[in-house]
Write a structure and sequence with these properties.
Layout lengths: L2 H9 L11 H4 L12 H11 L11 E4 L6 H12 L1 H5 L17 E6 L6 H12 L11 H14 L4 E8 L7 H9 L5 E7 L14 E4 L5 H15 L7 H11 L3 H17 L7 H10 L7 H4 L4 H10 L10 H9 L8 H13 L3 E5 L11 E5 L3 H11 L1
Parallel strand pairs: 1-4, 1-5, 2-3, 3-4
Antiparallel strand pairs: 6-7
Helix pairs in contact: 6-7, 9-10, 10-11, 11-12, 15-16
Protein name: Cell division control protein 6
GO molecular function: ATP binding
Keywords: ATP-binding, Cell cycle, Cell division, DNA replication, Nucleotide-binding
Length: 391
């Protein structure tokens, strides 16, 4: 642990011992600067990106792997470090024939969950390349593209763009991404990051390489959990045996493992415990749906939809007996300034995208179809705390 983390831990004590010292360190939606046990993956990515250290653009690539395999964690950490290269004008290779070391391309990371539209995509790329904030209103898509082309032409060494979470619900789909890339200048190279097998996505028609990221091995996942708890929890907050238990259950999925850790810590904190117990872990595991929607997906939804979900998870059982009852209960909440019709539409849209499930009731009064209720496909305790921390 570095000095800054140690100081923060003491600042948060407020005179009382607390189990959770730093929510961010154990959050399943926050990526740490140094991903644990991902050295070989980083080396494969650096092999592909090697031309940038000589001032050249690498070819396009497709990075893929199952959910929770750490794709986002590795890419965000790598690009955060590579972004410093143009500023520092560093070059790894120096020769006697080169008068000046080459500058490196610029690096841009784009979260496709938050940039599904053409405007949002070009806005995110341009905003990452300029110091001043790019306005979100009063400017059209064509103006953004024109400004981006002008800026990239000035960037003689080019730009490398990583677009993460491709082809997820509510995200940029592969065909649309191909069109977006086609609208960029020629001196742009890209990495597309998704879950689909290379043989099933048209992205590989435009790439020179496909880079696979496998699920975490059990010991790797244990190391991830222990690294997070050493920064985020009080000393001895999580026993190593419990970390192994979570890792065994998660079966290589870091998102689900961190979600379970986060929930277990929150349950222990609510009870005033100074460490996580087996009962906390068992309750946390039971709360994570199978399959589980990534909390990053839920927290990337528009704020009004998140507000609907925040009310949904706190409803009494009787208020969730049917979609109609759920709609009325949410629409009547003071924190949701939406009509019942809008709430119902949001619930149906989120059911279609898989964020929630419409579960048909097992009993009926014998008249017509049985009612269906809405169930979240994400862990409520984790979403509740993460949502409230944002407010």
């Amino acid at each position: 642990m570095d000095i800054e983390a140690r100081i923060k831990r003491r600042q948060r004590r407020n005179g009382e011992p607390r189990l959770i010292q730093d929510y961010e360190s154990i959050s399943p939606v926050v990526h740490i600067e140094e991903p644990a046990d991902r050295g070989p993956v980083l080396e494969r990515l650096l092999d592909h990106l090697d031309p940038v250290f000589d001032g050249q653009l690498p070819p396009n690539a497709y990075v893929y792997g199952p959910r929770g395999s750490g794709k986002s964690a590795v890419i965000t950490a790598l690009f955060a470090n590579l972004e410093q290269l143009p500023t520092e004008q560093q070059a790894i290779i120096h020769t006697t024939t080169r008068a000046q070391p080459p500058t490196s391309p610029s690096f841009v990371y784009v979260n496709a969950r938050e940039t599904a539209s053409e405007f949002a995509f070009y806005h995110a790329v341009l905003d990452s390349l300029v110091d001043e904030s790019v306005p979100e209103h009063g400017i059209g898509t064509e103006t953004l593209k024109s400004r981006l082309h002008e800026l990239v032409r000035e960037q003689r060494t080019g730009i490398v763009i990583a677009v993460d979470h491709i082809s997820e619900p509510e995200s940029i789909q592969a065909p649309a991404l191909v069109d977006l890339f086609a609208g960029l200048p020629s001196n742009v190279s890209w990495l597309a990051i998704g879950r689909d097998d290379p043989s099933t996505t048209e992205l590989t028609r435009y790439t020179a390489e496909s880079i696979s990221i496998d699920r975490y091995q059990r010991q790797m996942l244990v190391d991830v959990l222990m690294t997070r708890t050493s920064n985020g929890l009080a000393q001895q907050g999580l026993d190593h045996g419990l970390a192994r238990h979570i890792a065994d259950w998660a079966d290589g999925n870091a998102h689900d493992a961190l979600a379970a850790l986060f929930i277990a810590a929150e349950l222990a904190e609510e009870r005033g415990q100074d460490r996580i117990t087996q009962a906390n872990v068992d309750a946390a595991i039971a709360e994570v749906p199978d399959p589980c929607v990534s909390l990053g997906v839920v927290l990337s939804l528009p704020t009004n939809r998140q507000a609907v979900l925040r009310e949904l998870i706190d409803l009494e059982e009787s208020e969730r007996s049917s979609v109609t009852a759920t709609t009325e209960a949410i629409a009547s909440a003071q924190s949701v300034d939406l009509s019942a019709g809008t709430v119902k539409r949001f619930l149906y849209e989120m059911a279609e995208s898989g964020v929630v499930d419409r579960v048909e009731a097992t009993t009926t009064n014998g008249q017509g179809r049985p009612p269906s209720r809405v169930e979240p496909r994400f862990p409520p305790t984790a979403f509740r705390r993460l949502y409230d921390l944002q407010q």
